[in-house]
Specification:
This protein starts with a helix and ends with a helix. It is built from nine helices and six strands, in the order H-E-H-H-E-H-E-H-E-H-H-E-E-H-H. With 248 residues, it is α/β, with parallel strands linked by helices. A six-stranded parallel β-sheet has the order 3-4-2-1-5-6, with helices on both faces. Helices cover 45% and strands 14% of the residues. It has a single domain, classed as Undecaprenyl pyrophosphate synthetase, CATH 3.40.1180.10. The relative contact order is 0.19. The longest helix is centred in the middle third of the chain and has 24 residues. The structure holds farnesyl diphosphate.
């Protein structure tokens, strides 16, 4: 029985979020510059997306560039932006043909104009597709997102458009860049680092975490199946006890 056949389709996560980490170390291991690793990381993105499609995952969020990544050497930042522009441009037709919707979260207005244009075009081309929603987190950080949400909600309260009692879980979720998207049931981080790094802090309140030693460029289709099988072996209690879960 293949790994894919072992997956229970009834409990496949609807939303998987991934912190793609280890490109730099992978390149170093090959005696290459860091950008070499990012280039190979694109192949891992392709494979992961296909695996997610195989399992009918509805949303796949990839942490491609954080607000903190600007502090990397200029050459690496420029290289990453070029890679993004080139990759989106090259892949959009194939992604469109495979029914993918390409969206983003994060402060995309802070990205180079050419990158913003590729992203806008990619969204315009794919927005009516009905397949997987590929969400690229770009110039994203959870603290940035939560600060914006807080500011906007405070403004609504100050303008008396809402009352203090209207501020609840749903209202906050509706002011995040993931509005309308279910929280990820599964968060994966590659490269052996066991951190969340300012990613989706609100949305992962009840996510299962899967950490793997694999460096991102080596992450393949089977690795996503394995992460989902690991997720399916867990008991999600949401603050309850086992007996309550068994009854429901
Ligand atoms: C983290 O590895 C990786 C990134 C900051 C960039 C991720 C980008 C890609 C995989 C390529 C482009 C993606 C798309 C969606 C087209 P790292 O550099 O922090 O690795 P290290 O921890 O080994 O240094």
């Amino acid at each position: 029985m293949s790994l894919l056949e072992k997956i229970n389709r009834d409990t496949t996560p609807k939303h998987i979020a991934i912190i793609m980490d280890g490109n730099g170390r992978w390149a170093q291991q090959q005696g290459e510059e860091r950008l070499f690793g990012h280039n190979f990381g694109v192949e891992a993105v392709r494979e992961t997306l296909k695996a997610a499609q195989d399992m009918n995952v509805e949303h796949l969020t990839l942490y491609a560039f954080s607000t903190e990544n600007w502090s990397r050497p200029k050459e690496e930042v420029d290289g990453l932006m070029d890679l993004l522009i080139k990759t989106i441009g090259n892949e959009v037709e194939e992604l469109h043909n495979s029914n993918v919707v390409i969206t983003t979260i994060g402060n995309t207005s802070g990205l180079p104009e050419s990158c913003q244009k590729e992203l806008r075009d990619a969204y315009e081309t794919t927005k009516n597709n009905s397949g997987i929603n590929l969400i690229l987190a770009l110039n994203y950080s959870a603290k940035w997102e939560l600060t914006n949400a807080t500011r906007e909600i405070a403004r609504l309260v100050a303008a008396k458009e809402i009352g203090l009692d209207d501020v609840n879980d749903d209202l906050i979720s509706d002011h995040l860049s993931t509005k309308g998207i279910p929280d990820p049931e599964l968060l994966i981080r590659t490269s052996g680092e066991n951190r969340v790094s300012n990613f989706l802090l609100w949305q992962i309140a009840y996510s299962e975490f899967h950490f793997t030693e694999i460096l991102w460029p080596d992450f393949g289709r089977e690795d996503l199946y394995k992460a989902v099988l690991d997720y399916q072996s867990r008991e999600r209690r949401f603050g309850m006890v086992s007996a309550q879960i068994e009854k429901s």
